[in-house]
Write a structure and sequence with these properties.
It contains ten helices and seven strands. The protein is an alpha+beta fold and about 325 residues long. The strands form three sheets. The chain has a three-stranded antiparallel beta sheet with strand order 5-6-7. Strands 1-2 form a two-stranded antiparallel ribbon. Strands 3-4 form a two-stranded antiparallel sheet.
């Protein structure tokens, strides 16, 4: 139909004038700085005409118009961004190693074994305790058998001046002699703090000489011990209100028994030499630096330049052992 064919250009022109047929907008990359703002342009549509295949006098018959969406242009600004150079990893560096190890430990798979839980059963606990006990017992037996100590105990009372005892085995090496005082309680707070800070280093401890400070206090507490009181009276001038040095319950209650040892031979009793030097532990010597040697012609140790009732020699060594 020529009439319908003549109208084809006007229909196409009308569609183009109404902007029903549009070409997709191509993205422009002329700008040197790519835009980072997201595109807000709405999707565009394009109208196409499908030919039906019927031909009249060289003309074409329009078919249905189909519309389809044209996708938005791809924002490739990030693709054109220049890559930042990365610093090469140093050889042997362990940056983040600890973090990776911790994360690996925290994120490890759950243990499927129940062995560790079964070890907390009563039977396993009893078996473990019995094994430790037997091992400790055997080690103790081996240590005692290896050292094989021999101990002889000699009991005496306050009225005894001598005691005979027998040692039926030969003793090799040094023979240590020490005394034991039964029913003597020295752990009360008032007694432990009864020391003289002028004579010893207290290592920031709290000490006091209360109720054991003067010669009168010593007579009240130990007046029946004539040998001990003779020492205190000689150092204080026998004045009741004179201050004893060192003072305190610990010093005033010193155990002052003396021992001599004799061995019976065919010719009679032979006295044995006893070494009473260096009785204090080497680590404890720093606690008695305030006590100095006696002045020339005197046997009384000095505390802060003042003579004390402690005499030099074995008595001073025994006093350090007692104060310890």
């Amino acid at each position: 139909n020529l009439k319908e064919a003549d109208q084809l250009p006007s229909v196409v022109a009308h569609l183009m004038e109404e902007k029903a047929f549009k070409e997709p907008v191509q993205p422009s990359f002329a700008s040197a700085t790519p835009s980072t703002q997201p595109s807000t342009q709405a999707p565009q549509k394009k109208v196409a005409f499908q030919e039906t295949g019927d031909h009249l006098n060289g003309g074409s018959v329009l078919g249905k118009a189909m519309d389809y969406e044209i996708s938005k242009p791809v924002d490739d600004s990030n693709l054109k961004r220049p890559l930042e150079p990365q610093e090469p990893a140093q050889k042997g560096s362990c940056s983040g190693c600890m973090t990776r190890y911790v994360l690996k430990f925290v994120e490890q798979d759950e243990n499927t074994s129940t062995l560790t839980i079964r070890l907390y059963r009563s039977f396993c606990q009893v078996a473990c305790g019995a094994s430790v006990f037997m091992l400790s017992f055997l080690l103790g037996v081996v240590c005692l058998a290896g050292s094989a100590p021999q101990e002889v105990t000699v009991a005496y009372s306050a009225s005894d001046t001598e005691k005979v005892f027998v040692i039926d085995q030969a003793l090799e090496g040094d023979v240590l002699v020490y005394y034991e005082l039964p029913n003597l309680f020295m752990t009360s707070k008032g007694y432990v703090e009864g020391k003289d800070k002028r004579a010893i280093n207290t290592f920031m401890g709290s000490v006091t000489c209360e109720v054991a400070e003067t010669l009168e206090d010593a007579r009240f507490r130990r007046g029946s011990d004539e040998s001990f009181m003779t020492r205190l009276e000689a150092a204080t001038g026998n004045e009741s209100d004179a201050e004893i040095l060192p003072c305190g319950l610990v010093a005033l209650s010193m155990f002052s028994d003396n021992y001599t040892f004799e061995r019976e031979t065919d010719a009679g009793w032979e006295r044995l030499e006893v070494d009473e030097t260096d009785l204090a532990l080497p680590a404890d010597e720093s606690g008695y630096l305030k006590i100095t040697e006696p002045a020339e012609g005197s046997d009384q140790m000095r505390v802060g330049g003042i003579e004390s009732w402690i005499t030099a020699g074995s008595f001073y060594e025994h006093w350090k052992g007692w104060d310890r």
